[in-house]
Amino acid sequence: xxxxxxxxxxxxxxxxxxxxxxxxxxxxxxxxxxxxxxxxxxxxxxxxxxxxxxxxxxxxxxxxxxxxxxxxxxxxxxxxxxxxxxxxxxxxxxxxxxxxxxxxxxxxxxxxxxxxxxxxxxxxxxxxxxxxxxxxxxxxxxxxxxxxxxxxxxxxxxxxxxxxxxxxxxxxxxxxxxx
Length: 179
Description:
Layout (H helix, E strand, L loop, with lengths): L2 H12 L1 H21 L4 E8 L24 H9 L2 H10 L2 H4 L9 H11 E5 L5 E8 L2 H39 L1
Antiparallel strand pairs: 1-3, 2-3
């Protein structure tokens, strides 16, 4: 053994009670802080997103080449989910303005939006079209309800958009057939 190691070992032997006391103090303070920390529950809803449909073409000569897969599509959809167009309907559907009110004072839409936005964490699953909607909340049922409702409202809006695209394409085809 090197003389330097023996010097260190000698210092450790002399100070072992102090080292043990500091270790015990750190472990116990972390344990106490963890015990009294408020509980947080995490709920995750996973959805699959597909790029927008191209307009409907019923005639063979109206084929349109499909666009290549957009690598930023999932990230774009994550940003859309976090916008007020999706979050405000979640707030209204779950009546969060009243549920989250404190001392009889009703929250504003903006305050509820900020609170829900802070509770949300969205991640795209690498190399897939999947998005994970995670919600952290002090109540496990609330966390699950929020994650599922965000996913449901987003999907309803996407289906509505796709239905509108198809309806518009069919209307254009009807107009072309009439002329």
